[in-house]
Each structure stands twice: as C-alpha cells, then as structure tokens.
C-alpha cells in the first residue's frame, strides 16, 4: 500500500504557500569529505546510511534509490518532484537517495555533502517541519556521528552551509504581487531580512507560474529557531500582502477576476495541447480562484499538478521518453481529466 | 405562432457561406422620387405599399414596422439582423419596413429609393433567392407600377443601381484564406470579375470575424441571371479554396486545428465577459470545427449568434439599453448557455 503523498494534503495558508522545506547538510566524521572519497568508500557510505536509517523507527517507511540504477528520466522526474537536487541527478560517482513512502522525507547521499536531509510539508509549516527534520537528523548523528565543530557548527563542504547546515524555504504563489509589480520590492525586502528568493527549481531557475522559493541565506551565527522564526515571519507578511492584493482586485473588479479564473478552467478542460508554462499559469489562476472562493477547489489537490505536468514526470507516466509535442498532448490530456481527480468545477 | 426564422436553417455550403441575399431597388412611377416627396406623400406610399402586399398571397406573412414608432434600439437591432439598412434606421422622414414572419424577406419603404426589396437565404442559394425576390417584386409592379425605362431599366435614385436595380450578395466566412494571406488576392480577383468585397455590415464596415460580403458592382448591361451566375461561380471558387486550405491545415497539423477549435469551445463555455470581436472570432473557430467534422455542430445554428451577440440585440433581449460592460457580461452569459440550444459540444 502506498502512503498518501505529502503534496496531496492541504496546509496552512495553502492557497498561497505551496510547501515548506527544511534541509540539513551533514557530513560523517569518519569519512573523508565528498570528492576525496573512493567509489568504494562512497558505496560503503550509502550502505551504512541505509542501514542506520533502517535501525530507526521511521526507517521502515523509506526505500533506497541508487542513482546509478536509475534512468536519466527517473532521475529527472525525482528532481521535478523536489525529492532530489539536480546535482545528485547529474553527479558522476556512486550516489543514492533514501525516500520516505509519502515522499515528504529524503536523504541524498553523496551530493555536495555526505548527507542532505530534506523534509517537505504542504502549506506554511515551518516549526513542525523543522521538528521532523531534527528527528531524522538524530538518527544519523546517533548511528554514524556527524563532523561537528564547537565554533563552526556542522562542517560542510561549502562554507555558506557552515553553522546550522540548515536551509529552510517556503514556496509561495504570488501572481497578485507580480501583477501589482510589487514582487521586486518584496524580494529585496526579504533580502534585507536575510532571505533569498529563487525560482521553482532553486538557484538560477526562473520564477515560472508566479512561484517563488524564499530561503535563508545565512546558516552561521543564528540558531535554527531564530532562522525559522525569521523565515516564517517574513513569509506571513508576504502571504498577507498577496491576500490583500487578491481581495482588492476582487473588490475592484469581481467579474474580471471571475472571468480570468473561469477562462482558465475552460482552457484546461478543452485544450488539446499545452506547454508547461501555460499549464502553470492556468493552474495558478485556478489556485487564485480557489483562494477567493470562486472555485470549490482544494489547493492541496493542485500541488501535485505543479510537477505532474513537467516533462520527465509526463514521460515517466507514459512509460517512455516523449517528444516535446507528445508531451504537450499528454499534458493537455492530463489537465482535461482533472475534473474528478484534482479540482471540482 | 412564429415562423421558423430563415437563419436557423442550414444551407448549401453552409460551413463557409452564411447567407445569400438579393436586393432590388425600385421606385413607383406615380410618386416623385424620394427626397422630393412631402411627408404626407411618403405616408401614402407606405400605406399603399402595405396594402399592395396584403392583397397578394404572400402578404399574409408580413408585418409593417413604422420606423417613427420604433426606438433607436429596435431600429439598430433590425440593422444588426440585416433586415433594414443603416440608412433606413437613421433617416429623418417617414419610413417603414415590411418584414416577413421568418425574417427572410423585407421591403424597406422610403430608404434611398421608394422600395428596397430584400430576400435572404441560408447558405449559397442564389437562384432560388432570385426567384423569391422576383415573386415579391411582381406584387408591387402589378399593384403600384414601377418607374422603368426601356434603355436604362429600373430607374433608381443612384445611377449605380440603374438597369436591374439588383444587388446580389453572399456572406462568406473565410478564416483560412485570411490566415494564408490569400484574402487580398481573392478580393482583387473578385473585383476583376465585377464583384465587390465588404465587411459584415456592407460598405465601409470591417471584415469582423473573418466574414466578407461579396456582391455585384454593376447593375446595367447584364441580365439578372448573368449577374447571379457570375456571383455564384466566383463564390463557389472562393468557397472551394477556403475548403482546400481548411483541409490542408487539418492534414498538416490536425492536433493544432483541434486544439484551436476546442479552446474556443472552452472559452465560450466558461468566460464571464466577452466583447463582440472575440465572440465572432471564437464562433468562427466553432464554425471551422463543424466544417471539419471536429464538432457535431450544425452551422445553421451558428448564424443566429452572429447578430445575437451584437450590442443592440443584446440590449433588446435584456429589455433595456445595456452599458458596454453589461453587454460583455450578457454576451458571455448567452454564449455559455448555447450548449443545448445552438451547438452541441
């Protein structure tokens, strides 16, 4: 039996906040740093990590996925679902990921650091996500022993991760801020509060579908709680502003907003081919429609579609590598069929 | 009981040819020419014309509409439905129109000439339409006596109508010719064959919704049959070319054509407001979809919408003068509701 996937649940502020993520960068003290390890040592690291997890209570709900056994399609699909990073997918040496049944937790092995622990949750849920990440963290510290320095904190390959080794982020859907041209100001204000804004797939990726990832820039000199509180505080302000602008546009032109939302529904239900960027834009309109009570849609149901419409997941679900035009067709097919599944209209 | 309106039937080549129209310009010999008549004389002309028609067999199916008793909205709505000309709607002196129950025949009284007889038919139907126009014509010639000259033919106010006094036209939907940028060539070739191309509301109007009216330019020196044959011949060539291009685009990119058609359906079924120009464009896509067998739509059912979506008919059906934004809302409402009525999807 498959556990219910994390992204099918709706979370706090789920109409704006797609997800919260906490990630820890960790290295095992008894191994040389990644890049200085032999393939054999790396394979031992993988096997030891898996064993360590299996000894713990939560370990029963994980499976080990060996990157060298995966097709490039399967790896790309995992990247699209935010389970692994592009670096892990593309790396050359032995590497693997442990994935929880509900896909909310993953442990990348031999990415930039020995371990990259990640916990995802729907909506805005910083504290609980941090809590769960710590539970996972303790398992490996106990079983394997982390490289830790009293002054520098967790030792990481890249100095920007020193200290807590933690990156906490929220994925926000901000079409109203974009439309009001306030997004630039919001991003720079977030920068002043120590946060970085990125696109949907992290560093260097574009903010497709009005989706922005906000994460802490600094890991050294603050406690995990301080960093998490700061992020949550800023996120709540951004979400509130997005809500205000959405409501304001509804008040000033209800019919215009309804028109946009319903046209998006009409196109999603009838188009015969669609590219990713249009799909994300239209799903964004549906999300806004749900947020404003125009559509009786559960935003949680929309999260899954954010990656289900992407190239590799479309190919994976088709069982073969699809050409761009085949993907456009399959994407439209998928979206036409969501009436019963993912949003009621 | 209301007779079934002419535009609800589908005609020959109905997927490209919306309608055929024959119009006769006639003057009654015993009256001074229009413009030189007193209002009293004009009112006598109106009453005599109505009486003449009522004596004939077909006269039972006509009603007299006095322009001076109509609101400007009602007059504009009649123009949109092609029952009267803008000149009749806007003229200052007494004027009227006799309209058949099915709206296929009308007799404008005191437009540019004493009488303007008009017969409309769905699809390409030149010969039968000419035949029906002649039957109507005979009624007034017999009862009132036309101004006729052996050499000049029917005497009309404007010399461009001398001779037969006949204007025959077809309304063609030519989106594929437009898209292939062949429309300019087609119009100039038609010009070489003595035909003029105009927009949906005649002289000076734009070719909205890819709709073009082709009519004879010359009325003197040819018989009615010659002019009609010529028009039909050219129309058939244009229609054939439009069909060829539609089929060709289907062959080269079936999915793309289907995508456009179904997106149009989706937008028509879900939009909350829509302007006339978008409505005509989307209804045009539906017409093409029906033409190519993508939609099981009867093109005859679409003809009515060509004027039902227009400003004055929308206001008239609402029972009051609507503002532009109210019209956009009502137009979208009308189009959302057509599933059962006018095209099945």
SSE ordering of chain A: EHEHHEEEHEEEHHEEHHHHHHH
Arithmetic mean of pLDDT of chain A: 91
Termini Cα gap of chain A: 30 Å
Structural class call of chain A reads: alpha+beta
Radius of gyration of chain A: 21 Å
Q: What's the β-strand tally of chain A? A: 10
With strands numbered from the N-terminus, the spatial order across the biggest sheet of chain A is 2-3-4-5-1-8-10-9
Shape of chain A: globular
- Give the low-confidence spans of chain A: 340-345
* Oligomeric nature of the chains: homodimer
Helical segment tally of chain A? 13
Tell me the strand percentage band of chain A.
15-25%
Biggest interface, and residues per chain?
Answer: A-B, 18 and 18 residues
| CATH homologous superfamily caption of the largest domain in chain A | Glutamine synthetase/guanido kinase, catalytic domain
Q: Do you know the CATH architecture of the largest domain in chain A?
A: 2-Layer Sandwich
Largest sheet of chain A: 8 strands, antiparallel
The CATH C-level name of the largest domain in chain A is Alpha Beta
Estimate the helix proportion of chain A, in percent: 40-55%
According to CATH, the fold-level topology of the largest domain in chain A is Creatine Kinase, Chain A, domain 2
User: How many distinct folded domains of chain A?
Assistant: 2
């Amino acid at each position: 039996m498959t556990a219910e996937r994390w992204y099918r649940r709706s979370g706090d502020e789920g109409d704006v906040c797609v997800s919260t993520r906490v990630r820890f960068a960790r290295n095992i003290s008894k191994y040389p740093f990644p890049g200085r390890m032999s393939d054999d040592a790396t394979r031992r690291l993988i096997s030891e990590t898996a064993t360590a997890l299996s000894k713990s209570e939560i370990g029963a709900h994980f499976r080990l996925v060996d990157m060298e056994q995966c097709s490039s399609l399967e790896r790309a699909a995992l990247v699209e679902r935010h389970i692994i990073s592009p670096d892990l997918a593309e790396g050359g040496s032995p590497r693997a990921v442990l994935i929880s049944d509900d896909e909310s937790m993953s442990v990348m092995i031999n990415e930039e650091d020995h371990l990259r622990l990640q916990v995802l949750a729907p909506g805005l849920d910083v504290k609980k996500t941090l809590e769960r990440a710590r539970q996972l963290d303790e398992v490996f510290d106990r079983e394997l022993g982390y490289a830790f320095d009293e002054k520098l904190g967790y030792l990481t390959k890249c100095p920007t991760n020193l200290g807590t080794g933690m990156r906490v982020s929220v994925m926000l859907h901000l079409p109203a801020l974009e439309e009001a041209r306030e997004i630039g100001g919001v991003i720079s204000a977030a920068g002043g509060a120590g946060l970085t804004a990125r696109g949907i797939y992290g560093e260097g990726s574009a903010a497709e579908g009005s989706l922005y990832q906000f994460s802490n820039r600094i890991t050294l000199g603050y406690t995990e709680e301080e960093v998490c509180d700061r992020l949550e505080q800023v996120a709540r302000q951004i979400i509130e502003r997005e809500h205000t602008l959405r409501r304001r546009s509804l008040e000033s032109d209800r019919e215009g907003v309804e028109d946009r939302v319903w046209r998006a529904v009409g196109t999603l239900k009838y188009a015969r081919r669609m590219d990713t960027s249009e799909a994300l834009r239209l799903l964004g309109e549906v999300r806004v429609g749900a947020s404003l009570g125009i559509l009786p849609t559960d935003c949680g149901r929309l999260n899954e579609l954010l990656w289900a419409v992407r190239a590799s997941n479309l190919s994976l679900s088709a069982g073969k590598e699809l050409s761009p035009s085949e993907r456009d067709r399959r994407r439209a097919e998928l979206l036409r069929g969501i009436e019963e599944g993912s949003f009621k209209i």
